[in-house]
Amino acid sequence: MIYLQLFATFFIIGLFTFGGGAAMLSLIQTQVVTKFAWLTEGQFTDIVAISQCTPGPIGVNCATYTGYEVAGVAGSAVATFALVLPSFIIFYGIIALYNKYHRTSLFGDIMSCLRPAVAGLIGAAAIILMFRISMDGGLPQVEVIEENFGDWCSWAILGAAFIASFYFKANPILLIVAGGIAGLIIY
Q1: Residue 76: how many CB atoms within 10 A of its CB?
Q2: Which among 22, 55, 104, 182 has the fewest CB atoms less than 10 Å away?
Q3: Residue ranges per structural domain of the chain
Q4: Are the C-beta atoms of 68 and 76 separated by less than 8 Å?
Q5: What's the mean pLDDT in 49-57?
Q6: Res 126 pLDDT > 80
Q7: pLDDT 10s digits, 5-28
Q8: What is the pTM of this model?
Q9: CA 123, CA 144: separation in Å to the nearest integer?
């Protein structure tokens, strides 16, 4: 039963999320932390951090880790397969449609409409990682998740990485390695 639940959950996440792993985070968090309570908020935040440091898409890494926590190696295989299966199906469907309709203005209009939706999903993922939002008496109650904000050293590393990336066009791989080394030294 748990395998079917994992498959259904991650298949739906893969089916209804556009824009890659970062856009999936809010939906994954809602399902695995809030709905099924497979992970705590702290575990989910750790998954996001680890998933960004390990090779592969963040959504796949989150599915793999969650599946492993819920049902071991088999659960990790089921969750990962379920997450990527819709992408394969949609990809082949889009190729067929693209080959047939790519010169029409309607196709271009549809693709351009997806961009703001993806930006909104990525923004929602960032907000979910920073704040716990609940509805109490019809009004939203916002609580800062302080353990996800880090300390001033974390913010200094973030600022240095942003400046190095934005102004000096530093290599992202070197920034990840430098951030990891700085984290090891500081913490």
Answers
A1: 19
A2: 55
A3: 2-145, 150-187
A4: yes
A5: 84
A6: no
A7: 999 999 999 988 876 677 788 889
A8: 0.57
A9: 16
